[in-house]
Amino acid sequence: MDLPGFALLIVILFLQITLRIGLYFSHKTTTFRDYAVGRKNFG
Q1: What's the confidence (pLDDT) of residue 17?
Q2: Any idea where the domains of the chain sit in the sequence?
């Protein structure tokens, strides 16, 4: 695998992991207030 192909693979994996994490945590947020203040869970 050449360097540009490897770099593209890394970018695709990064985006896929980020998307999955975002979707997982989006189900826990029910209102905009929960999103804005983080459910007051800062620690």
Answers
A1: 97
A2: 3-40
